[in-house]
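Notes taken during the Thursday session

The instructor put the following on the board and asked us to keep it in front of us for the whole hour. The protein is Endonuclease III. We were told not to look anything up and to reason only from what is written here. First, the residues (225 in total):
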Amino acid sequence: MYRTLQERYPYAHCELDFDTPLQLLVATVLSAQTTDVTVNKVTPTLFARWPTAAALADADRTEMEEVLRPTGFFRAKTNSVIKLGAALVERHDGEVPPRMADLVKLPGVGRKTANVVLGNAFGIPGITVDTHFGRLVRRMGWTAEEDPVKVEHAVGELIPRKDWTMLSHVIIFHGRRTCHARRPACGACPVARWCPSYGVGETDPVVAASLLRYELAPSAAGSEG
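Then, after some discussion, the predicted structure tokens were revealed:
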């Protein structure tokens, strides 16, 4: 199933825009309860105004809240970003540490965020168990676990470690574009033949094809399906 989905989404990648580990770490924290598209709209302004961990730590709270307002929960997120900047300065000289044990000790950073950063900023394989990933691996029968950490370990035993980061991208892409939470496009799914949940969504191929979403994919992939 993984190989087939990888063929379906060969362009799968982290959809948060970033140039540095710090930018990815902050963007991932901001992505809670909002879309990557929304985060990508505010981060250029955020990082132009506060480009380093020290700058984030010393930011004017009211000014940052206005920048982050479109992401929702902007007061809490502003507080998280300022505390995160301060912790990086105090503990790691302003640099993002490339170790899970250090990342999860930072304020607002859990295993999901740490795996995003490790896999995409440092090239260290990690499985990102977000809402889409957990939902899909359960729907496809890979695991019955609900706890994200247990899901991470269960799926990690099925797929070679070197593939963990790409696996995360591919599964998340499939969840956003085809295997939707409320009305999955079963009739247009490339892994339908192996999926124990086939039929929970639209099975008619024509109708299912109309449900496919490629709004975030490269234009070359827009006609797939």
